[in-house]
Structures are given as C-alpha cells and as structure tokens.
Fold each of these.
Amino acid sequence: MLSYESRPGKQRFYCSNCFSPIYVTTNNETEFLRVRTGLLDGDPQVEVTGHMWVCEKPSWVVIEDDKPVYMGNYVGPPDSL
C-alpha cells in the first residue's frame, strides 16, 4: 500500500499495484476512516450513520433513510434536518 499526505493532517492510501484510492485518514477526524466503497465487491456490513457531502451527489441519487445529512464535512450533530 502506498500513501502520501495530500495536505497537512490528511493521509491518502492507494493500492501499490493499480494505484486505486482505498481510504483517507485525517488528524482532526480520528473517529472516521473514509473508505472508497467503489472498490468493495460486497456488502461492507457497516452501519451508515449519516451522509456527508450531499451537495456533491449526482441528481439521480436518492437518500431513502432518515440518517443525518451534511452538505459538506461532518461538523457534529445537526441542529435539525
């Protein structure tokens, strides 16, 4: 696996064979590991707790649950949805 710091405190990890992005970690959000789910073959069997960067989603994607929605980064519990 290869990695580099894309900006201070943000580490990106890539496959050493095909260079596909795998996951990202940040120093200021240590409770999160951002996995690139497009690389997964099956159900990752994790609980989705919210939706980040909704402002960037394609128009055809519909969020069909009642999980918290964040237009950008997670910034703590939302005041209201």
Amino acid sequence: MKRTFLLAALLGLFAGVPALQADARVAPQPTGVIGVDTTQLTPDYWVGRQRQADRVILDRGAIASQNRKLQQQDPSLHDVEGLPAELDGAQVREWIEDLSSRPSKALYDDQGKPVAKKTLDGLMDALNLKAIPKTQKTRYGLVVRRADLRTFPTTTRVFSSVDDTDIDRFQESAFFPGTPVAIVHESRDRKWWFVVGNLYAAWIEKQAVAEGSKTQVFSYTRKVPYLVVTGAHERTAFTPDLPAVSNLQLDMGVRVPVLRDWPGTKTVNGQAAYTSHVVELPVRNGDGNLRIVPALLPRTADVAPDYLPLTRANLIRQAFKFLGERYGWGHSYGTRDCSGFVSEVYRSFGVLLPRNTRDQGVSPALNRLAFDTADSRDKRMDAVADLQVGDLVYIPGHVMMVIGHDNGMPYVIHDTNGGSWLGPDGKLVSGHLNGVSVTPLTPLRFNASQTYVDRITNIQRIRP
C-alpha cells in the first residue's frame, strides 16, 4: 500500500513538471512587432474581448439581399449568367483592352534585365485582337483547378524593379475550381482564353477551363446539397486513377456539391468512400469539354454543410486560419493578397466582395465611410475609435480587417508585403511582414511623416 501511495505521489510530481513548463511557455512574449505579444496571436484572445461575440450580424436573407445589390450596383462585377446569347465584338475588345494595355513603365525580367520592346510587341500581338468577330455566340465553362489570371496570355513574370521579384506585374488574380466563366476570346497561340467571371475578366490557360453549355455550367453552381470549405484551404484525396481531381486545392469559401447518399463501401477512384465526403468536381475532357465526376474530400477537412453564420467570433476565427501565410500578390504562390484575403474570409459566410482594393473600397453596395485629403486627423481618429470587428479599412493599395481594440488601440489582421513603424529612436523600422499578420493600426506608418490613419481612404462596414 505504501509503495502504491509513493508511486502515485511520484507520478503526480513528475506529471506536474510538464504542466509548469507549459504554463511558462504561454506567458506573453514580445514578437518584435510594435504593440504585439504572443497572446494576441490567437483568435480566442480577440473573441474573448467581444460582447455578444456569437450574435449574428447579417442573416442569410440579408446576405443574399446585399449580394444582389452588389451585383446590380457595383460596376466592377459582371453578370456572367445574364450575358446575351450573342456577344458584340466591340464589347469583347473593350474587356481585353481594359486589361491588356501596353505597359508604359519600365519592366524587368527575373534576371533583372529590362523587358525588351520586341517582347512587348509579341505580347500585344498574342492578344489576337484582329480575330475578334463582329458577333459571336456566348460560350461558357467551369474552372477545373486553381488557376492564375494574367494580364497577357503568358506565364512570363515581370517586375517593376530589379530588386523586387515578389510582385509579378502580369499576375492579376486566380479563379478556383467550379467558378463559372464566359469564354470570349482565344490567344494567337491557342493556349489561352480570355474569360469573364463575376469578379474578374482576364487571361487564363485553356487547360484550366472545361467548356460546357450554359445549362451545364450554372446547374453545377446551384447543386444541393453542398459543402463549403471553411479552412484556409483543403485538398482532395490523392488518386493516380484520375489526376484531374487528385490533391486539388480548394480555398476558403469554395462551394462543392456533395453526394451524401454514396454507399460507404463503394469506391471512388480506387478508394473506399466511407472515410471521406464524396464531392462532385468539374474536369476537362481531352476535347476540352466539361464532365462532372466524383472525388474524395477527407472527413478531416475543415468544411461545413452551409455557409457559416456571420458573427464577430466567426470573423475572427476564419481570418486567423490564414495567420502566417505568405503574401501572394494576385494570388501568387497558391496563397493570396490583401483583398483576396478579406474576400475569402467573407466568402466563407456567403458574402461577396469585389476582387480588388480599389473596387472594394468604393463599392456603392456596402456601408461606406469615405475620407479625402481635406479630412482632419481628429475626424479620422474618431472613426478609428469607432471601428468594429469585421470592418475593412482601406489605404491606397491595401486593406485591413479589424479584430478588436486593446490598450486603447484598434488591431487589424491583414495580408501585407510591408509593415513599418517608428522605433525607439524615432527612425522608421521596416517589419518585412510579408504575410498574414496581426498589428495595431495606429502605429503603422506609410512613411516617416505619414501614418496609415493619415492615408485612410475608405472604411467599409459589412452591416445593415
């Protein structure tokens, strides 16, 4: 009995050692970023600071109404399904020329060499504008994999300076599997299509799009039941049987039909289905036409049977799922940029936003507070003090999402390739954040003389 008691006591003593060590590890530690310690890098910290964190901000009906308003009022969006049966050639040319204008500033390749005039001539020729007919039948397709959207029909990367090879100036955005598009033109080499989606119009590699009838394309987008990807990104199960749906990246907010009645012992692409969700995905046949096939998404994937309730707690938790992800201009690197980040967070609630910061910040369909250069510092600071979780704060070329207040300051989470503040000596410190980061808003500097607050152009509140 004594031995048993002694053994239990020793086990209890040793069991307590890791616990003490664990407690020490969670003590706040400085991060090197102004105003941020390690406790502020968890979603629970910010959720716990909210009153009524789980109260619904907009219900499904209100979100649907706002999305319709956005589609009707925002000039940056395209009503792809509402396009006429025949497209006017002048409209097609306008779409292309609005994007693919000849660069007027110097550009450099990945070797640091200036992009030659001959190269630019070739890009303009690749647009094949003379081949646009006066009218053409409207064609449709579904995107079959995460695919880059490009300024020109080329994978060539170009940069504004020789010492910055992160921001490819020909990279526009990305489309995700299941995105419906209108196919409106083909490049001279027949390897690229110019496509128009609801949120963007740009060049995409043909192999990333499967062509189908209008009915095929839009019936897929309405299929029920479905799953919504609520993780930063998930991947379908690997399969050598059908590489087109193997290890396919599905980003936050992507909606995929699910076959809930699929027998668990029946295989999908050579694998029993009972440990996975059986989802339907578009693939491109050898002739370029659309086919819908089953694929497996592991049950461990971060998905939901519908869009998440739009609450403060969920906004914070969804945004933090990207924390630390590398910044990717125009969705480079399989990641995203600042406007893509906030778009995908809100998309997990079914809320649509324009793709780019310049369009998001001025959208007439949202609850906008605008500023101009004449607005005083006091007016700006009053607005900053009133910021709420989920508010989107815009400065030229950048957007941040508010996650709460702490120590008298509003804090934001944002996907940034910069981040600067003044050091103890009053000199500008460059944080080189280059990823999804948590920072206080007010200390951030645009330069040595201007703060981010001084540069705010708009605040958009996704509220009634």
Amino acid sequence: MSKDKNEILQLAEQGQVIQKPQDAIKDPYILEFIGLPEHNIYSESELEQKLIDKLEHFLLELGTGFTFVARQNRISFDDKHFRIDLVFYNRILKCFVLIDLKVGELKHQDIGQMQMYVNYYDRKIKLDDEHKTIGIILCQNKSEAVVEFTLPENNTQIFASKYLTVLPSKETLIKLIESESKS
C-alpha cells in the first residue's frame, strides 16, 4: 500500500535508521502502560510520577538510545528558577532531550518555555562535541497551526507530540490510517 516501496523494503531490511532528531521523535506517544484512564482529570505532577514509576516502559516508548538523567531539573538565572520536568540523553543522537509535560491543549507559551530550556542547555550544559539539545512537549492536544507559527520554519530542536493514555480503538486507528493515506 506504500507509495515508496523501496523505502519500506529498506526499513524492513535495516530497521529504523536514526540520522536526524525527527527520526527519533514519535507523535503520538502511547502511555497506556502508566494506568491513567483516558478521560480522567489528573495533574502534570501525577502524570510525571506515573511515568517515573514506569520509567523502563517509558524509555521503551521513547525509542532507541534514551537514558534517564534527571527529574524536575532546576535551572536558574537572574534570581529566577525554572524546573524541566524530565531530562534524558540520547546516545545515538548524542544530545540531551528535555521533556515538558502538559495536561490539556498546547499553548504558544509552552513552546516559548521549551525554547528557553533548550537554549539554556545548549549554552550552559552541553559539551562542544555534543549535538544541539532537543525539546519535546508532551501534551494531550495540540494545534498544528500553533506549533507551525510559534516555531521558526527551519526548526529541528523543538517538537510537540501528543500522548494517549490508552491505545485507540481499532475503528479509530482505521480512520487515522485512511485520513493519512489521503494526505
């Protein structure tokens, strides 16, 4: 069914080849293993605690090469303190990966906050031989337009990915596949 059969054959023979950050970032992430109901009200700190409790599963969901670095990592400047929800390092990409958890709709302010975190890590934390820091905002809902118009056109560092706390139904997956194949 693929339009690029050679690319699919190459993927089947070699597996996923990670050459750029986009190759390692998923959208959506399926967080069913943490045990939160689909339409329950919960806080970002509860979501974070559930992920930490199931860190091994979360690392597998993130993908290849991720290692855990910190939780609620505090950065400070100008007598102001900020906390990055989760910090990972990706051995394959050779860079830090910062994750900010958002319950609800992604806002442009969330993207600006992540840009600040990424800039800080790039300027103060990363070593000269490491690649630029990647920021992932995990949110329940996102507007592609908000992401598109908040980030620069040549963005390769900040990603907004949805998360689902339950695997979609078979019918929903079929609709998603059909809508993707029409695009």
Amino acid sequence: MSKNFDVVVIGGGPGGYIAAIRAAQLGFSTACIDEWKNAKNGPAPGGTCTNVGCIPSKALLQSSENFEHAGHAFADHGIKVDGLSIDIPKMLARKDTVVKQNNDGILYLFKKNKVTFFHGRGSFAKAADGGAGYEIKVAGAAEETITGKHIILATGSNPRQLPNLPFDEKLILSNTGALAIDAVPKKLGVIGAGVIGLEMGSVWRRVGAEVTVLEALPAFLGAVDEQIAKEAQKLFVKQGLAIHLGVKIGAITAGKKDVTVEYTDDKGNAQKAVFDKLIVSIGRVPNTTGLNHDAVGLKLDERGFIAVDHDCKTNLPNVWAVGDVVRGPMLAHKAEEEGVAVAERIAGQHGHVNFNTIPWVIYTSPEIAWVGKTEQQLKAEGVAYKAGTFPFMANGRARALGDTSGMVKFLADAKTDEILGVHIVGPMASELISEAVVAMEFRASAEDIARICHAHPSLSEATKEAALAVDKRSLNF
C-alpha cells in the first residue's frame, strides 16, 4: 500500500537531509530516501560530504597535521618527541568513527523531527493519479512505492573520470579511494590542483609521501584571488608539494603495482612519471543515474544538471532540486541553504539564498578562504575598488601559535567603501571568513569592520587591520 507524504526528498546529503528537517519543522509530513551504506550495509545518510568528502577529509587533515606538528613544530615549543611514527590503520579508523558519528547524528535528527527515513535508491515511477503529486519507487532491502505532493531532488554529484580511465580505487583513485589508502605511498600523483587534490595531497605529503600535482590550467587556483593564490602556491611548494602547471596529460598506464603518467609540461617537453597511487581530482558531475527522470519528463540541461530556475523549481510542478545536482557552486553549505529555502518556499514563505555571499574554503595548511569578488574579477568588470592587506606575520596571536604564514585581503568599492570581497590565506581562515560573510550580507563597509573592536590577541585582528589598510591606516604594519 502506498504511503503518502507532503514532501519526499530524494537524497540524504547536506541539501537533502536539511531540506527534510526544515520541511518537517514547517509541519509537513516528510520522507527522505537515501541509499548510502556503511560497512555493515546499514544506512549512512549524509551523502558524499559525510561519507567520502568534507567530514572524512577534515579528519585526515587533522590527524596528518598533528603528525607534522609533532615531527617539526613541537621542538620550537620545547616539546621533545622521540621515535615518532604513525599508525595509518588507526588514523583511518578514527576517520571512520568520525563519519559514523555524523551518520548517526543525522538519523537521530530525522527521528527527533519526525522525518520518515527510507534506506534505498529513490526514483520516479510516474505522476500520481489525479495530479496528486508523484509516485516514487524506493529500491532497497524491500521495494516499496511512496507518494509525495512535493518532491525535492538532492542526489548530489560523482567524481569526474578521465576518458577511458575508470576509477578502481586501488591504483586510480577518486576522493573515495584517496581517503582509504591503507599505507603511505612512496610516490603519489595527483591530477588536478583543486580543493580535493590539494587537500588529499597535503594529507599524504605530511605523513611521508612524495607528492606531485599535475594541473592543466596555467594559473594556480584560478578561481582564487591572484595575490592570495600566488602566496598559497609559494607556501605549498616550500612544504614539499611538487606543483606543475600548464601540463597536458597523455597516456596513463596502470600496471600491477604502479601507474605511469605521460604528460607534456608547460614548456612543451615530454615527461613521464611513475606513481604508486594516482588521485584523479578533475571536478565532479551531477548524479542523475537511476533517477528515471524521463518517466515524468524532468528536464536536464546541456551539462546533465537538473534544470532549475532561481528558486530551484524544475520544469515540473511541485518538483524542486538543490545542491550539486543543479547549477551553482558544488558546496555542502550552498546545498543546505537551498534545501532550507525550498522547504520554506513550499510553505509559502520567501526562502533566501545569496550566491554573492557563499564562502569558499580549502582546508590545507595554511587554509584558504574567500567570499565575494576577486581582484581580477573587479578589474574585468571595470569596477573601481580599493584594496587593503595585512600579513599574519604582524599578528601577535599568529606569532604565539607559531603560524605566521599568509594574509587577509579586503576589496572595497572605491566610492561607497562597501566590501566587495575578502580573501584569506593563513591560520583558521575557515573560521575568520564568517565575519566577512556577515559583513557583506549586511552590505557593510570596510570602515565598519575597521571601527569594530576585536579581541586582543586574536587572529581576527588581522581582519580589522586589513579593513584599516583599505584606507591606508593599518596600525600594526
């Protein structure tokens, strides 16, 4: 017998589970369908982010950073460490525990908010009779069909493969395999100098791998403010990451125990490298596999994303889509905001997502975070602006932490002083960027931040000083 719901969410990642919770909070009978499984074939909601993305990568980044500090930075603090070693299986087990805690937390939140959870793959069966919504098939341990008046699609994305080079997760690794390497590879290759490539490359470099990053684009982190990107590249190279830009990947041959990559460098010279493991991180593609969208006439765009308007409405009545499977940045927090907004729109409210104030973070060391426009974007758009920077080497808290790399950069309108962009490379950039997001959401000026009292000593003082520097009146540099 069919089960009827006001809202059915397909996908339990950041966009999906948050949409389901918000819909339930608003009084709708809500179901969420998710097929992720843990090692025991039990439910593991949270999507790519929780299972093989944001959460496990941050766990490994923390573990590897602790190891690097113990081997290098502790001595400066008078802490002696003899016989330092790392237990990779233990590190991975801790990562798995962190993931499970998040999985279980989502299941608890479903129960708390009275969201009905179905463990399986959700797909369209047909439009319900009498225009009463849509029938959704759940293919799990036991197949069943449910009906939803409103459908929210939050099916996420998958890693992009190189042509004719499928992931085997043993030698040719996606983000999934990169998070589960069971021993430190002597030589690790990374194709793609994006977020995943740099984060995973950093993890395994810290614990002893020789890491080579091959990037097709001629500029490092082209989406990042150029000044910040150049500073970050300099710091990564100093740490030991070998970064090659402007390369053209040729033949890739997987042997029994290694991978050979042939490529042309930025000077046109033929090169060959042999790696124990190869991480391919060249972007992600929308996941619509098995959704059976043709059964109801759901429209996809030319790149395979579910086509939506500004409000996340698809071409079908009462069918919505959020997160990685639609246009816009593939970020967990963007998906969450869209999920909340859609639930509120279904309730007749005015859900809000401001794409101009979505923060970006790369959790390397130093961290890189930004919001708003880059300097090169402002130049291309012909916007008159003022810039102010402040280095962490002049910040007392950064000196005490022993991490003075990087800077904070403010970009403000030359006439109105409104903040147009803030860019940070340095310690705890992921936390510091929130002040800039709040300021920009309220259309603050650089002068507003410059006039706010910041605790001393704190890293946030670098934010204040960069705002002061917009008017060329920094106090501590």
